[in-house]
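Sample intake sheet
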Amino acid sequence: MSVAALTLYDRALGAYLGFAIGDALGATAEFMTAREIADTYKGGLRNIVGGGWLRLRPGHVTDDTQMALALGDALLAARGWDLRMVADSFVGWMRSRPPDIGHACRRGIRRYLVEGTLEAPLSEDNAGNGAAMRNLPVAIATLDEPELLVCCSLEQAHLTHHHPLSDAATLAFGRLTQILLLGGSIGDCRRCVSETLALHPRFRFEPWPGNTSGYVVDTLQTVLHAFFRNDSVESCIVDVVNRGGDADTAGALVGQLAGACYGVHDIPPRWLRQLDRGIAERVQRQTAALLSLPRPLPLRAPSTRSIPLPTTE
């Protein structure tokens, strides 16, 4: 199917399945170096085989996909935006004893449980990629609503991550995803990224600095470098995952962009077969339901505070 013929559903499902597949493939290589991956998987890691430091079963996903699904569940339960329902959904996820949970996410959810507060304090410790990684449901639910994309993205981010660079990266991924979901071009994405780089030159990714940690700057640089130099879902995800480091999150985010760009039909059938069936079915149901939410997205419990846009450096 040509890119021009893709429907919104083709792109949205491609983004969500690409995200989950990038997570499942990348989990195997998380914390490995590119050299270690190349030595272990001759020809590079190209199939979802599980294992990794979490010893996952083949096709299973990590906190990236699990938290995105939890966020999407809250949106659907509220039939709109209710930040407290999002926080409660994250609590339910944490109590399910997931295989992994990032430090900032755990700290923020525990703070909410103890204090009932919906915003983490501004902190240099909150510049990880945990807020950006889970925001896809917001991007889908707020299509054509740029102000709501900003509001909802930053509110969910600040539950656990409150840092200007985290904010900027979360919004950048959200805006790029929406451009692609609505049929925008690679050139449109380049222009959007140029605007982000003008505000945050630390995000410059060409030439690629070579860092693959969970620091949100490293993640954004890695994802954008791979996205703009490849031309398919498979090549984008394989490129990122085989760089190692925080490979599950970077793989998920590049899968999100590539899936939105090239559509669900561009995802290799073997990956769709290898992805855990329960996760695949849940992603499919949630994608359709998010696209069916009322427009504009109702604010069930609107924030009483004003969320500023990320400032320049």
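Comment: Residues 302-309 have pLDDT under 50 and may be disordered. The chain has one domain: 3-291.
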